[in-house]
From TrEMBL:
<feature type="transmembrane region" description="Helical">
    <location>
        <begin position="59"/>
        <end position="79"/>
    </location>
</feature>
<feature type="transmembrane region" description="Helical">
    <location>
        <begin position="257"/>
        <end position="281"/>
    </location>
</feature>
<feature type="transmembrane region" description="Helical">
    <location>
        <begin position="6"/>
        <end position="28"/>
    </location>
</feature>
<feature type="transmembrane region" description="Helical">
    <location>
        <begin position="35"/>
        <end position="53"/>
    </location>
</feature>
<dbReference type="InterPro" id="IPR001626">
    <property type="entry name" value="ABC_TroCD"/>
</dbReference>
<feature type="transmembrane region" description="Helical">
    <location>
        <begin position="91"/>
        <end position="114"/>
    </location>
</feature>
<feature type="transmembrane region" description="Helical">
    <location>
        <begin position="173"/>
        <end position="196"/>
    </location>
</feature>
<keyword id="KW-1133">Transmembrane helix</keyword>
<feature type="transmembrane region" description="Helical">
    <location>
        <begin position="229"/>
        <end position="251"/>
    </location>
</feature>
<protein>
    <submittedName>
        <fullName>Manganese/zinc/iron transport system permease protein</fullName>
    </submittedName>
</protein>
<feature type="transmembrane region" description="Helical">
    <location>
        <begin position="134"/>
        <end position="161"/>
    </location>
</feature>
<feature type="transmembrane region" description="Helical">
    <location>
        <begin position="202"/>
        <end position="222"/>
    </location>
</feature>
<keyword id="KW-1003">Cell membrane</keyword>
<keyword id="KW-0812">Transmembrane</keyword>
<dbReference type="Pfam" id="PF00950">
    <property type="entry name" value="ABC-3"/>
</dbReference>
<keyword id="KW-0813">Transport</keyword>
<comment type="similarity">
    <text>Belongs to the ABC-3 integral membrane protein family.</text>
</comment>
Length: 296
């Protein structure tokens, strides 16, 4: 029988692992700000799905989030293609769609367990109380959802590893080889969307950005191999979540906030101690001598 604390730790670790895997590709694609945008705009998809079905659970929530994430991606790309700077496109789209979601929550949703604070911050401490019976075993709904999403993420990563690797490093070459670059891009954005909404209950929209970006950025400092980076990013995410829980108990503070803070701690350690890109390595390593240019 898993304890109350055990479910929180498992759920937090699942968030860290899933976000870490997806985040590795986000960092390599230089799309960290898209994670911020999608983590906010999926709120609109969740609210619209609730208004249609009047339920806060079920696959329709993921569908609404995916549609909102894809809409965000499409609008950002469309505005950029029309001459708007990419960062400006992201800022305009995500603030507008997120604002619409906030307005719908405050005016149309009413007195239900869906509000701006819940969507932004999340509350992992409540997760063990909302359970579903599976094979005679009570498991929190959020934990089961995260487990399913992790399986989906791993399946797609394994199936499309070479394709996504190529599109991340050289999209022009991928296009010349006949790969469906646009389809792969939107499929990946859909993956980011379902990962984000699955993490809502645990860490909320704001904190999920830290889980998506920071462990991957830390892993990037340790290796130049994608497979190793994905593994390190997932490990850093899980470590940050577990350590953050105990830090929150020690400080009597927000659990999700402490988890996000620990991703920053992991990054700082990596930034200092990485054997190739860390500050210590740069200080210890002697400066390279300039090569003499041969002369006749």
């Amino acid at each position: 029988m898993i304890s109350y604390e055990g479910w929180i730790l498992i759920t937090g670790a699942l968030v860290g692992i899933t976000c870490g895997i997806v985040g590795a590709y986000l960092v390599l694609r230089r799309m960290a700000m898209m994670a911020d945008a999608i983590s906010h705009t999926v709120l609109l998809g969740i609210v619209v799905a609730f208004l249609i079905t009047s339920r806060l659970d079920g696959v329709h929530m993921l569908i609404g989030a995916v549609i909102a994430g894809l809409l965000t991606t499409f609008l950002v790309q469309w505005f950029h293609s029309k001459g708007v700077q990419h960062d400006a496109s992201i800022g305009v789209v995500f603030t507008t769609l997120f604002a619409i979601g906030v307005i719908l929550i405050s005016t149309s949703v009413g007195n239900v367990h869906l509000d701006v604070k819940h969507a932004l911050m999340g509350e992992i401490a409540f997760i063990p109380w909302n359970t579903v019976s599976l094979f005679g075993f009570e498991i929190p709904v959020a934990t089961l959802t995260l487990l399913i999403v992790l399986i989906i993420v791993l399946t797609l990563i394994l199936a499309l590893y070479k394709e996504w690797k190529l599109t991340a490093f050289d999209p022009a070459l991928a296009l010349s080889l006949g790969l469906p670059v646009v389809f792969l891009h939107y499929l990946f954005m859909g993956l980011v969307s379902i990962t984000t909404v699955a993490s809502f209950d645990a860490v909320g929209a704001i904190m999920v950005v830290a889980m998506l970006v920071t462990p991957a950025a830390a892993a990037y400092l340790w290796t130049e191999r994608l497979s190793v980076m994905i593994g390190l990013s997932a490990s850093f995410g899980a470590i940050s979540a577990i350590a953050g829980y105990y830090v929150a108990l020690w400080l009597n503070s927000s659990i999700s906030g402490a988890m996000a803070m620990m991703t920053g701690v992991v990054f700082l350690i990596s930034f200092v101690a990485s054997p190739t890109h860390g500050l210590l390595a740069k200080w210890i390593r002697p400066p390279e001598k300039k090569k003499q240019v041969p002369t006749n």
